Amino acid sequence: MTVPVKQRYFEDYQAGEVFEFGDCLVTEEEILEFARRYDAQPFHVDPVAASASIYGGLIASGWLTGSLMMRMVVENFISPLSSMGSPGLDEVRWLKPVRPGNRLSVRVTILDTRRSQTKPDRGMIQVLQEALDQDGQPVMRVKGWGMYKCRDAAS
């Protein structure tokens, strides 16, 4: 029996598993609001300047794309029973501009699992998270680790 993702502990994750989920419409208003506050480069905050840029139009900050992906990961993947956070990311890549009207979803691939040798109550799970556009094309890729509680700390 497969354990539902939101009820999983470290032992329930297997390298090679792939999860796809989420649906997020990216709006011009959201792009502008985020960029004005956090990433005020002209191609993020000014549609006229953006149309004269190498992008040919307004694009979302990569940090907005990452934030949208994280929201979908929290809502659809991370187990509230066992997640202990993350020690960090190894790679972040923005592969394709995200534009107003794009619809994003997420694909998470489990790359590796490692039980802690020094803390038997937890393990590390290496994941590849990809934000996909409405055509299924990756627009952002993040590789990193998550810490998860073990169901049975003694085993």
Q: Say which CATH homologous superfamily is assigned.
A: Hotdog Thioesterase
CATH topology: Thiol Ester Dehydrase, Chain A
Highest-level CATH class? Alpha Beta
Give me the Rg, rounded: 18 Å
Q: Major sheet, described briefly?
A: 5 strands, antiparallel
Compact overview of the structure:
The chain is α+β, with helices and mostly antiparallel strands and 155 residues long.
What does this entry look like structurally?
Helix content is 23%, strand content 33%. Strands 1-3-4-5-2 form a 5-stranded antiparallel sheet, with helices on one face. The longest helix is centred in the middle third of the chain and has 15 residues, at 62-76. It has a single domain, classed as Hotdog Thioesterase (Thiol Ester Dehydrase, Chain A, Roll), CATH 3.10.129.10. With 155 residues, the protein is an alpha+beta fold. The chain is elongated, with a radius of gyration of 18 Å. It has helices at 28-38, 42-45, 47-51, 62-76; strands spanning 18-25, 88-94, 103-115, 122-132, 138-149. The protein is built from 4 helices and 5 strands. β4 (122-132) and β5 form a beta hairpin.
Task: Map the helices and strands.
Blueprint lengths: L17 E8 L2 H11 L3 H4 L1 H5 L10 H15 L11 E7 L8 E13 L6 E11 L5 E12 L6
Key words describing this protein structure:
alpha+beta, Thiol Ester Dehydrase, Chain A, five-stranded antiparallel beta sheet, 5 strands
